[in-house]
Sequence to fold (520 residues):
Amino acid sequence: MKRNFFLLSILNTLAPALLLAQNPKVDILEYEFHLKLNDETDNIEGKTLIDFKYVEESDVLELDFAAEENGKGMQVDSILQNGKSLDFKHSEEKLNISTTAEGEVTIYYHGIPEDGLIISENKYGDRTFFGDNWPNRAHLWLPLIDHPSDKAKVSFHVTAPSKYQVVATGTLQEVTNIDDDNSLYVYASPLELPTKVMVIGVAEFAVQHLGEIAEIPLSTWVYPENKEAGFFDYAQAERILNYFTEKIAPFPFTKLANVQSTTRYGGMENAGNIFYFENSVDGKRSSEFLLAHEIAHQWFGDSASETDWSHLWLSEGFATYFTDLYAEHKYGKSKLDEKLQEERRQVIGFSQTTKTAVIDSSRTDLMELLNPNSYQKGAWVLHMLRRKVGNEDFWKAIQHYYQKYKFSNATSADLQAEFEAAYGEDLDQFFKQWTTQYGQPKIKIDQSFNNGKLKLTIRQLQKNQFEFPLALQLNFATQESKIIEFDISKKKESFEVEVSEKPISIDLDPNTNLLFEEAL
Fold:
C-alpha cells in the first residue's frame, strides 16, 4: 500500500472513515461479490455471499458496511440464510445480522458508494470504476470485515456495459455476453487475502499480455489513448518480478496485472492487479521504482500481512527497502546510498515535528500512518538489520519470515524472532530502540590532536539513548583517508586513535549504514 513518497493527494482526501477494529468472534472464510454497474447512474446493485464461522459463541454476525446517509452509502434490501430471511440492523458503519448458525449468508443491497469504489472519469474524460480500499474503505461499498487480520478467499462477479473490460482480484474464470448491452466477468482467488487488496477495475482498456514471467502471467492494462507509452513503461515489471521471485520466493498470486487507474495514491498494491496513478504512464519509464515498490508489496503486505495497522512498517517499510534493494541490484551501491540518504533526510524531517515510533498504536486516523516512520524509517530498520547480521543471514531471515507468514499475519515480534533465529543472537535492544522508541541518534563529535594521537569524544544529544556501530572516515591532507569504527553504547564516549597527522575533516557514516542526524 503505497504511498508516501509517490503519494498524490493523501492530505486532501475525504474525511477518514471510522477506525474499524478486528472482530474476534467471527472468521470469514470466503466472500462472493456480485456487482452490477451501469452508465446511467452511480448506483450499484450488489449481492454478497459470505461463508463464515464463529470463533466464539454468538447470535450476531457483525460486519463492517457503511449505511446510506445524505444520498450516498449502501441500503440493505434483504438477507437470507438457507432460504430464510434474517433480521438485521444497519446503521452508520455496521451491519449486524441476527443468526446463530454458521455457514453462508446472502446479502442483497444497493446504493451509491461514498468512497471505496471510485466511479469517475479518467484524464481522457472516459467513465471508469476502480476499487480503492486502503486502509479500511472496502466497507464503503462491500459488506465484510474491514481489517487486515481477517483474511478470506474471494470472487468477483461483475456485470457491466459491454464496452468495458474488467480486471479483478484472482484468475479470470468467465466472460459472458449477458445481452446486447452487458457482459459478465468472473474472477476468483483460492488464496486468503486481506480486504484492503480485494478490488475490481472497470474501464475501456488496452491490454498487453507479456506471457509468463517466472511462471506468472504478466499483463499491462492502460488507457487506449496512451497505449504505446503504457506498454513501454509497464514492461519494466518483467525484470522487477524476476528479481523479487529469485530473492524472496515464488510470486504468491495467480497473475500480475499492472493497471493504469484513478487511484488516489501513487500506487495501490491490490493482490495480483496493481493500480497505478494515471500519470505513471509517460513513455519515459519514470515510474520504475513505483512499480518495484508495489510489486514488492505482493509478498509483503498482501501475502504476509501486518496483524494490525500499528505494524504497518512490515508492509510499507518492506516495500520501500526492497525497492532500494532492486535499485542496488540494477544500478549499483551508489544508487542504494543515494536512495537511503534521501530516506534518512525524510525521517529526520518528520521526527522534528512528530514524536512517534515506527510501531504506532496511537493513531485514530489511519491515513496518518502513511508517514516516513512507516516507509523510510521502516526501510532503514531493515537496512541496519542487513548490515548487523550480514547479507547471508539477512536473506535467510527474510525468506524464513515470508514462508512462515505467507497468506497469514505477523507482528514486529514475529519478524524479530526470525532474525534472531538466523543470526543466533538476541536482537531485543535493536528492535526496541529502532521500532518502539522515538527518534534516532543525534551525534556530535569533538576532536583534539596531540603527539600522534587523535582523541575523539562522541556525544548523543537526543533524549533517548541508542546503541549502534559508528563508522568515521578520517580525511588527511597528505595521505589517503582512513575509516575507523566504534561500538557506541553510552551518551558520551571518548576514544584515542593513533594517526600521523591531524585530519582535515571527519565524515560520519561514509558507507551509509546508520540512521542518524549530525549535530551542527
The chain has three domains: 4-302, 307-435, 442-518. Residues 162 and 182 are 5 Å apart (CA to CA). The domain at 4-302 is CATH 2.60.40.1730 (Immunoglobulin-like). The mean pLDDT is 95.
